[in-house]
Design brief:
43% of the residues lie in helices and 16% in strands. It has 375 residues and is of the alpha/beta class. The strands form 3 sheets. Strands 7-6-8-9-10-13-14 form a 7-stranded mixed sheet, sandwiched between helices. A 5-stranded parallel sheet has the order 2-1-3-4-5, sandwiched between helices. Strand 11 and strand 12 form a beta hairpin.
Length: 375
Amino acid sequence: MKRRVLLKGVAAGSAMLALPALAQSDRRLVLGQSAAFTGPAAQLGIQMNRGARVFFDAFNAAGGANGHTVELKTLDDGYEPDRCKANTDRFIKEDVFALFGYVGTPTSLAALPLVNESKMPFFGPFTGAEALREPFSKSIFHVRASYYDETALIVKNLTQLSLNKIAVFYQNDAYGKAGLEGVTRALKPLNLAPVALGTVERNTVAVSQAVKDIVAKLPDAVVLISAYKSCAAFIREARKAGYGGTFYNVSFVGTQALADELGKEGRGIMISQVMPFPFSTTTPISREYLEAVAKAGGDATPNYSSMEGYLAAKVFAEGLKRAGRAPSRDALIAGLESIQNANFGGFNVHFGAKDHVASSFVDVSMLTEDGKVRR
């Protein structure tokens, strides 16, 4: 009798050990985020993460979704693809519930084969690259508009002002090339092409050659496709070289980080945006976000990158609510796909069974000499 009881106890213990992490009794769902938290692109990861945490902390305090709370676990990849791939492999082996808020095109692309192989939900990456949207992947969900959307608006704004001589300064990797392709595509129907190109290597500020290559062609405007430190370095050096034209950045630059880098030199720098304006209460989502940031206190401050993290977390949470009382990864995907024509405080979100790009919203902002951002 005792032997039978002992064997039953061992079997039960073995079954408990074999249970996946998702079935833990504390009903906590762990999300994995690989992003730059150190290095020249650190503010992109830090701010995206802070915004998401502001939402998830309040979400958990209110009881979560159907009794399930969310833990956001982070690993630093320094904005380097190999490190991101290793982080993703670790998250998958640890059996996290989903991947959330990755930052960057080259890093996200390095994770892509692992994501597709594991069928792990990959939600809200901070990138607008088409290579993560086409071909369609059942696992990947985008909250933001694409770089094609952003560069199309930039080219439209410039050419409507007869600023047709457009140069492109871009990061020499998948992110920069995605932005360059967007500008080229937008110019082609107008029988135009970039008048000059200049590159910078990821995580560096070696921009001197790019400045020479671009300024010599006297463009009306330069579209910059890189992160904040290299873009700030290019703008400074181009101005020192006598360039007096217009600068346009895409949203991934990190708007507040760029403003902080440039200070007074930021006056007049234009940036396309894919999130609602985060500095005033003009929309319900902005009001909600600003109230949440103020309540969170600490090092949380309003900015576009943080707003993106907050809004991505909010949309993810809605999908989780729709996943039911026993959420699985498949149920989460189904829940997210059921979010159709939904209004998140003035930010429209639409997913579907074959449409995992929530928004095509693009706006434009401008830096001021006092380090602020205005529309």
